[in-house]
Design a protein that fits this description.
9-stranded mixed β-sheet, 5-stranded mixed β-sheet, Peroxisomal Thiolase, Chain A, domain 1, 20 strands, 602 residues, 17 helices, 20% strand
Length: 602
C-alpha cells in the first residue's frame, strides 16, 4: 500500500460478532429468558448492520443465530444510522404478522480507520466530545451493539419494560450525505410513528433526538420537531441526544439510544445531553443539559434517527395500548407493475430515460435499481407527483454495496492515504446507497429500507412491502426491488449484473398477494405451508414459478424475477394462482399470487 494507508487489522465481521453475542446474551439475561428456550420457541432475529459495505451482512446474522441456536428467520436491515431503529420496528411487525413470538431486535457496528477517514473527509467530526444542539460543532464516532427482546403480549408471566407502540419510516430524496434542510422527511417519519402508535403529539413526554452535533443534522431535526409539535409545544418538550455520552455508533446508534431512553423511563428520569451549556442558533432553546438525569415521569417516549441517503425512522414507546391505536383492519394488496434487467445486462442510457433526474455520482447498482424502478412505475401508469411522492415507498434487497464504489473508495485510500479519501465513493459504500440514490432520482419519499436474507432477498422485500401496505396507512404503494452487481475482478461463476422491481399497491388490479409465509433458513416447506394457511384455500396453487437458473449468479434478484414471471402468467390467464418460494441464507420466504381471490367453499 502507498500514502500511509494500510488495510485494517480489526476484522469488522469478527468484531461485530463479538459485540453482538455479548449484547444478545446480556439482553436475554436481562429479560430472564433461558437461552435454551430459543430452540423451542418461535424466535426471529432482526439485525441492523452495514459493515461499511465490505462484507455481506447476512453472514453476520447467520453466525449469530447459529451460535444462539435460533432456527427462525433472520432479516438484516442495512440503512446506515437507521439500521437498528428499523430493525426494532420490523421486529414488532414480525410479531404482529404472526411470524414469531419473540424477536431479538437491535444493531451492531464497529469503528475502523477507513470509516473514520470517510467522516473526517466530510468535515463533520468534532475536535472535542460532541455536544448535540450546543456550541461545539461536529460529531464523535462510536461503536458497539445493543438488542431488545420483543415478545408477543401475554407470552409468559413477565413484566415488560415498555410497549413498542409504533414506528415510522420515510425518505428525504434529497442528498447522499446531507439531510433535507427543513426536516420534511424526519417530520414524516415522526408523524407515521405517532399514527401507528395511536398517539398525539401532546402525549409524548420525552424525545430522544438523533442529534449528531453537526450543523446540518441538528438544524433540520429541530425544524422537523417544530413542524410536528408546533413551536410552543416543541419549546417545552423534554428533549436530548445520547450521542454526547455514547458517540455516534452508526448502525447500532438507534438501539443504544432506545435502551438509554427505556432505562431512564423506567427509573423516572430523563436522559441528558452531555456537555451541553449554551444553545446554538437554529436549535432547541432548552434541551435537557444537566450533568445528571433529571427526575421526570412520562408515559410515552419518542426516539428518532436519520442516515446517509435521507433515511429517517422514529419509534414510540410507552405504557398501555391507546384506545385510539389502529385496529386489525387490513387492506388487500395487489401487484400491478414489474420490470427487470439481466442477468448480464449491458450499458444503460439512464440519462436518456430520466432527463430531469439528478444522476450525479450514480454508481452501477443505483443505475440498475433506478432503471427497473422507473420502468415498473411506468408500466403501472404511476406518475410520482405531489402527494404521491410521500405516499410511495421503496424496499430493496441487496447483498452489499456496489463493487465499483467500493473499488473507488479503497483505491483512493491506497493512492492518497486516510486523510484524502474519495468522499463521493464513501457515501456509496453502504448497502443502502443504491436504494437511496434511486429514491432521490425518482422523488420517492415514503417508507424506505434495504434488507437482505441472502438468496431470496428480492422476494423478502416484496413480502415486507405487502405486510406494510396491508396494515399501515402511511403509503398507498410500495416498490419492492432487488439488485445484483458483478465485481470488477469476478470470474464467470460469480454474481452477474441484474435488477428487478415490483410495484405493490392497495388498489384492486387483478393480481392479488393472497398468501405470505416466512420461516428459518432451509425450511422453505414451512414457509410455503404458512403462505397456504394465510391464503385459506384448500387447493394447492396451480403453478410453482421457480427463480431462474443458475440461482447463484443473481442471489438477491432471482426470486423477484420469479414474482415478475408469475405476474405475467396470471395476467395472461394461464393460471389463477401461483406460488413463488425461496430459501435464503438466513430465512425462507413464500408468496402466493392469485388472479382473483380464490377460496374453496366446499
Amino acid at each position: 500500500m502507498v500514502a500511509g494507508y494500510e488495510s485494517d487489522d480489526r476484522d469488522p465481521t469478527l468484531l461485530c460478532h463479538e459485540f453482538g453475542m455479548l449484547a444478545l446474551r446480556d439482553a436475554l439475561d436481562h429479560a430472564r429468558l433461558d437461552p435454551g428456550r430459543l430452540r423451542t420457541t418461535r424466535v426471529a432475529l432482526t439485525l441492523g448492520a452495514s459493515l461499511f459495505g465490505d462484507h455481506t451482512t447476512e453472514s453476520l446474522a447467520r453466525n449469530l443465530t447459529s451460535e444462539l441456536g435460533i432456527s427462525g428467520p433472520a432479516i438484516t436491515i442495512s440503512t446506515a444510522c437507521t439500521s437498528s431503529t428499523q430493525a426494532i420496528g420490523f421486529g414488532a411487525e414480525l410479531i404482529r404478522e404472526g411470524f414469531a413470538d419473540i424477536v431479538l431486535a437491535g444493531g451492531i457496528d464497529a469503528l475502523t480507520p477507513a470509516l473514520f477517514a470517510g467522516f473526517h473527509a466530510l468535515g463533520v467530526l468534532s475536535e472535542a466530545p460532541c455536544t448535540p444542539f450546543g456550541s461545539q460543532m461536529g460529531t464523535t464516532l462510536g461503536e458497539g451493539a445493543g438488542f431488545l427482546v420483543i415478545e408477543r403480549a401475554g407470552l409468559r408471566d413477565a413484566d415488560p419494560y415498555a410497549l413498542l407502540r409504533g414506528y415510522g419510516l420515510s425518505g428525504d430524496a434529497y442528498h447522499e450525505t446531507s439531510p433535507e434542510p427543513r426536516g420534511r422527511g424526519v417530520a414524516a417519519a415522526i408523524r407515521s410513528a405517532l399514527e401507528d402508535a395511536g398517539a398525539s403529539e401532546t402525549e409524548i413526554g420525552y424525545l430522544n433526538a438523533h442529534g449528531t452535533g453537526t450543523v446540518a443534522n441538528d438544524t433540520a431535526e429541530w425544524c422537523a420537531i417544530q413542524s410536528v409539535f408546533g413551536s410552543e409545544l416543541a419549546g417545552s418538550l423534554p428533549l436530548s441526544s445520547s450521542k454526547g455520552h455514547l458517540g455516534h455508533a452508526q448502525s447500532a446508534a438507534g438501539v443504544l439510544e432506545v435502551i438509554t431512553t427505556l432505562e431512564c423511563m423506567g427509573a423516572g428520569l430523563v436522559p441528558t445531553t452531555a456537555g451541553f451549556e449554551d444553545p446554538r442558533p437554529g436549535g432547541p432553546p432548552r434541551p435537557v443539559g444537566s450533568k445528571r438525569p433529571a427526575p421526570l415521569s412520562y408515559e410515552l417516549a419518542l426516539s428518532t434517527n436519520s442516515a446517509f441517503g435521507g433515511s429517517n425512522s422514529a419509534l414510540v414507546f410507552g405504557g398501555a395500548e391507546s384506545k385510539s391505536a389502529p385496529g386489525d383492519e387490513r387492506r388487500r394488496v395487489f401487484v400491478n407493475g414489474a420490470a427487470s434487467l439481466g442477468p448480464g445486462v449491458g450499458n444503460i442510457d439512464l440519462a436518456a430515460e430520466l432527463p430531469r433526474a439528478d444522476l450525479r455520482g450514480i454508481d452501477r447498482a443505483a443505475e440498475l435499481l433506478t432503471t427497473v424502478t422507473s420502468r415498473a412505475l411506468t408500466e403501472a401508469g404511476v406518475q410520482l407527483r405531489g402527494n404521491a411522492r410521500e405516499r410511495t415507498g421503496l424496499i430493496a434487497g441487496a447483498l452489499r454495496a456496489s463493487p465499483d464504489s467500493l473499488h473507488r473508495f479503497h483505491s483512493s485510500l491506497e493512492q492518497r492515504g486516510l486523510a484524502r479519501p474519495d468522499t463521493t465513493a464513501f457515501a456509496q459504500v453502504l448497502p443502502s446507497a443504491a436504494q437511496s440514490a434511486c429514491a432521490k432520482a425518482l422523488n420517492i419519499r415514503g417508507p424506505q429500507s434495504t434488507i437482505t436474507i441472502g438468496q431470496g432477498s428480492g422476494l423478502m422485500a416484496a413480502v415486507m412491502s405487502a405486510w406494510m401496505l396491508a396494515r399501515r396507512r402511511d403509503s398507498d404503494r410500495m416498490v419492492a426491488a432487488a439488485v445484483d452487481v458483478r465485481s470488477q475482478d469476478s470470474t464467470d461463476d460469480d454474481v452477474c449484473d441484474a435488477a428487478c422491481a415490483l410495484l405493490l399497491c392497495a388498489e384492486p388490479t387483478g393480481v392479488e398477494v393472497a398468501g405470505i409465509g416466512l420461516a428459518g433458513p432451509d425450511r422453505v416447506d414451512d414457509a410455503v405451508a404458512d403462505a397456504r394457511r394465510s391464503w385459506g384455500s384448500r387447493s394447492a396453487p396451480e403453478l410453482f414459478v421457480e427463480p431462474p437458473s443458475p440461482l447463484g449468479r443473481t442471489p438477491a434478484t432471482s426470486s423477484a424475477f420469479a414474482v415478475a414471471r408469475a405476474l405475467d402468467l396470471l395476467r395472461r390467464g394461464e393460471a389463477r394462482s401461483a406460488l413463488v418460494a425461496s430459501s435464503g441464507t438466513t430465512a425462507s420466504v413464500a408468496m402466493i399470487l392469485t388472479s382473483t381471490k380464490v377460496r374453496d367453499v366446499d
